[in-house]
Write a structure and sequence with these properties.
The protein is built from 6 helices and 10 strands. By secondary structure, it is α+β, with helices and mostly antiparallel strands.
C-alpha cells in the first residue's frame, strides 16, 4: 500500500510542471467589454483624449486569484471629420478581477513603469510563462489584430454626423464619471437617439441630484442594450450637447 501511495505521489509531482505550463486565455464577450471599458477609462484620461477606444489580448488568466494579464491597445480619437488618433498607449497590463452577484468586474490594475524599470517590472508583475510573448508582442500579428478592431469601431463612428458623435461622446463621458457599479457592462457602440418632445411631463435625475423636467430642446442618448438593464439613458441639452442628467433604469 505504501509503495502504491509513493508511486502516486511521484506521478503527481511529475504532472505539476506540465499543468503549470497551461496558459488560460479564455474570456467571454461580456468580460471583454468590461475590461476594455475599464481600460479606456483609466489609461487615457482628460478631455483632450476625445473618444477613447480599447482592445485587449488576454495573455494569461488565473480565475482562482482573479489575476488577468493582457496586452492593451488604447487610442483616443479627435472629434474631427477624419477621426484622427491624437493619443494612444500600447502596453501589457495586470488586471485584478472579481465575480459576484453584480457580475464580472475589474477591481484594479498594474502597469510596468517606463524607462530602466520596465524590464524589471515585466519580470515582477507578469507570469514567467508569458515573458517571451511580452518581449515580442509589439511586433506581432496580434497587435495588428487589436489595431483593426479599434479601426472598425472608429469607422462605425465616422458613419454618423459630427453632431451625433459629439452627443455620444458627451453621454459616454457622463456615464464614465458616475459611481454606477455596472457602467463597464454598457456597450457604447450600441446607440439610440431619442426625441423627447413626445414625452410631456417626463423628469430626469439632474446633475444637482434633483428631479428636473425635460425642456423642449433636450434629447436622449441611449448607450447599450435597451432590451436589457445594461444601458444608460442620458439627457443632453439640445443646443450645447452638454449632459444634463439621466433617466434611472428601473
Amino acid at each position: 500500500m505504501r509503495k502504491v501511495t509513493l508511486c502516486l505521489f511521484i506521478f503527481l509531482l511529475l504532472l505539476l510542471p506540465l499543468t503549470g505550463c497551461t496558459v488560460n486565455q479564455n474570456i467571454s464577450d461580456e468580460e471583454r467589454l468590461v475590461v476594455e471599458n475599464y481600460l479606456s477609462r483609466v489609461l487615457l484620461q482628460g478631455e483632450d483624449a476625445g473618444e477613447v477606444f480599447a482592445a485587449v489580448k488576454v495573455l494569461h488568466r488565473d480565475e482562482l486569484s482573479g489575476k488577468m494579464e493582457v496586452w492593451a491597445l488604447v487610442e483616443g480619437v479627435a472629434m474631427t471629420k477624419e477621426a484622427e488618433i491624437n493619443q494612444g498607449v500600447s502596453l501589457p497590463v495586470v488586471l485584478w478581477t472579481a465575480k459576484g452577484d453584480a457580475g464580472f468586474r475589474v477591481t484594479g490594475h498594474e502597469v510596468p513603469r517606463d524607462g530602466a524599470d520596465y524590464a524589471q517590472d515585466l519580470k515582477t508583475l507578469f507570469s514567467r510563462r508569458i515573458q517571451g510573448t511580452l518581449s515580442s508582442f509589439s511586433e506581432s500579428r496580434e497587435l495588428e489584430i487589436l489595431e483593426k478592431r479599434i479601426q472598425d469601431r472608429i469607422s462605425r463612428r465616422q458613419q454618423l454626423s459630427m453632431e451625433e458623435r459629439q452627443a455620444i461622446l458627451s453621454a459616454w463621458q457622463f456615464v464614465q464619471h458616475q459611481p454606477w457599479e455596472g457602467k463597464d457592462r454598457i456597450d457604447p457602440m450600441q446607440v439610440e437617439f431619442r426625441e423627447l418632445s413626445a414625452m410631456p411631463g417626463m423628469e430626469y435625475w439632474g446633475q444637482g441630484e434633483t428631479w428636473r423636467p425635460l425642456d423642449g430642446d433636450d434629447f436622449g442618448v441611449v448607450l447599450g442594450d435597451s432590451s436589457s438593464h445594461q444601458f444608460a439613458f442620458v439627457i443632453l441639452d439640445g443646443v450645447t450637447k452638454e449632459a444634463l442628467g439621466f433617466i434611472p433604469v428601473e
